[in-house]
Amino acid sequence: MGELSFILHVLRLFNLSLILASPQEPMLRWNGSGIHIKGDVAMKKIGFIGLGTMGAPMASNLLKQDYDVTVYNRTQEKCRPLAEQGASIADTPRQAAHGQDLVITMVSNDQSIRDVYYGENGLLASLTSGMTVVDCSTISESLVKEIASVVSGLGASFLDAPVTGSKPAAIDGTLVFMVGGEAAVIEAHADVFDTLGKKVIHMGPNGSGAVAKLAHNTIVGINNLALAEGFAIAAKSGIPADNFLELVQLGSAGSKAAELKGRKIIDGDFSNQFSLGLMLKDLKLASSLTDGIGMPSPMLNLAKSLFQAGASEGFSEEDLSAVVKCYEAWIGQKIGGQQS
After folding, report:
1. pLDDT in tens, 130-179
2. Which of 20, 72, 78, 264 has a 20 to 30 Å separation from 273 between CA atoms?
3. What was the pLDDT predicted at 75?
């Protein structure tokens, strides 16, 4: 047996990975089932499930880095732009997960996750020992722990890795991941996290990422309401919105909400970066969490009620900053100055 053949034989036994390179040879990776070559660099095979506001740009960034990506979305037409970038299209979550090194899911809620994982053609049926599943959705802690247990029972690894940064960060590859799971699994996929984001924060065991995201989005919801209310006070009192936003950004009231949403509010631009409906969903999950741990959360519950008011007015599919339209109705004028 030649030296290279012997090395590959050992790697097969232990299901390890190796990169071999020389000035004359392309880089090779043995992934336990064969050598995969992609251009000059060997890349992981990734199944990506969920191509919404966040998922589509995330999958796009993986393709830009020459990962071998198979995509699935319930609405198939959302797959086509990624297919033009080189992605393979799967007909089911099960097919998207089959034969992959890594599977990433990014869907909207608990029921969608159950469908993707446990459905008739769910991805769990394709999991084998050594695979890793990373869920970037914002879902309940209890469901995260349930899925982590099932995935582990199949010999695979699971990370709950929700993100913050909204659509612009997903496009730019500057997301922040809050991750629950084993540190060694996070490290094994550091290349993927580096492609998609600027920072990974390990929160603890499975479920910790989900809890951190709900706590984080509680603050996001409250901060956006505070910004809307401040704008309404200033506008109703005759203060120009541009001047007020400048003050907020330079003063102690400065926040990510003001940075990302202030100009959108003034311009009445509620094109979706993170929808009001999804914010309401997250606040409901956070409220259930605080009920479960027996913690009073008056500000969270007020925020939930106000975003519910926005949803009742038909703003669910607009950006979360559209909640300001409730305030505009109450003061009888637009924040930008026009009378309603």
Report:
1. 999 999 999 999 999 999 999 999 999 999 999 999 899 999 999 999 99
2. 72
3. 93
CB of 35 within 8 A of CB of 19? no
Taking the C-alpha atoms of residue 62 and residue 58, their distance in angstroms, rounded to an integer, is 7
Sign of the alpha-carbon dihedral angle for 33, 28, 14, 204: negative
Q: What distance in Å separates the CA atoms of residue 17 and residue 248, rounded to the nearest whole number? A: 51
Q: Which pTM was predicted?
A: 0.84
pLDDT at 166: 86
CA distance 104 to 186: 13
Active site residues: 213
Beta bridge mates, 72: 49
